[in-house]
């Protein structure tokens, strides 16, 4: 029953959609022609009564009524209400199609997990797929009028071959007042467990995969049942219907053509047929008809789902896949491009021009840059402004006070950040702590705490710090032949914070 016009619009051309306007089956004309004729007949009847039946005094009163209805009819938010409603209905309609219980994925899992070339293995596979098809038939006959007319009773389901008479007895003897579409799924699980015990399903992983795919199938059956049970709220449908009908009821009076001799505003022309009012009715009422047709796609309208076709197709394909096609493989042969370095399928004369088109490489493939913009920049030249920016940012955040000046915590934090960003050794960093421009033999407080070690001078003799703000000791000369020594700091060290590298963690301990 679905109206398919995909081939008609396969290529965009002049008047492509215009040809679709001539189709009758599934068209808006087929749905709306009765309402349109009814609206036009009522409009013409009121127009004739105004012109030939009413007295002059009655005409003046009717004209005031026309002006009143025309002024306030626009207060009804028809476009707003219809837009949200139709969007909701179309989204619901597509989700119902996605919930159709198709057996393609399940049959592939069955044919790959349930093994056996003998008659019993074949019986297992066919029965499993028959149970799945039976569950789909039971749920579709519960929600689709077309399927219910095909299988009005369980006897028809038995005669169609979806259920045996013994299975029917078990089905009817099951004491449950609810819809029993799920019963064949339970039979499926029991039969799969029996096949696992017999070794037809070789491992638990395959058994798990089979049950998972069955649960996906069963969940789709459940979603169809819930969509049929939980409708769009009735109040929403009523509001939309009342809004559309009341609007055009007001238009029946408010869009009447009045006598031009009376001098009413926007009534300079007297016509018999309201062309644009009919177009407006066609669009708004047609919009409502779209929602009316899509709100239940399991009926018998022209564009409703082909449920009986899906039942036939799934049943035939699933039986063919698990029976005749089981373990049916062609002989392995080398493909046509076995010795080719580049495998490329040929083109016909109608599509040969596609070979000349380059393959898509990405949206940035054709971007061009100036030669100077493609030169890499040295990292050394970029670190100093970055570190200075770190220092300026911290100076704006932290107030300047005791321990916060140039030689305080802030003054010591900036060199730590510089050490983190620069990939130099800890020994070379000790010499860089000396402030530039300091007099010989004196190291002022410049952000490094602890002993100052100059790589170009002899070994220093340092003293332990007396406090976080005490000046650093003066480095002493050392013999050139002796190695560099590290003077330990006083006090117990704790572990470095886990979010800092070890050099910064050691400096943080000295700052504490």
TrEMBL record:
InterPro entries: Bestrophin, Bestrophin-like. Keywords: Cell membrane, Chloride, Chloride channel, Ion channel, Ion transport, Membrane, Transmembrane, Transmembrane helix, Transport. The keyword Transcription does not apply. GO terms for cellular component: chloride channel complex; plasma membrane. It catalyses: chloride(in) = chloride(out). It is found in: Cell membrane; Membrane. Signal peptide: none annotated. One of its GO terms (molecular function) is bicarbonate channel activity. Residues 449-512 are annotated as: Disordered. It is a multi-pass membrane protein. The chain crosses the membrane at residues 31-52, 72-91, 235-257, 269-287. Residues 470-480 have a biased composition (Pro residues). It comes from the Eukaryota. The keyword Zinc does not apply. Forms calcium-sensitive chloride channels. Permeable to bicarbonate. Belongs to the anion channel-forming bestrophin (TC 1.A.46) family. Calcium-sensitive chloride channel subfamily. This is Bestrophin.
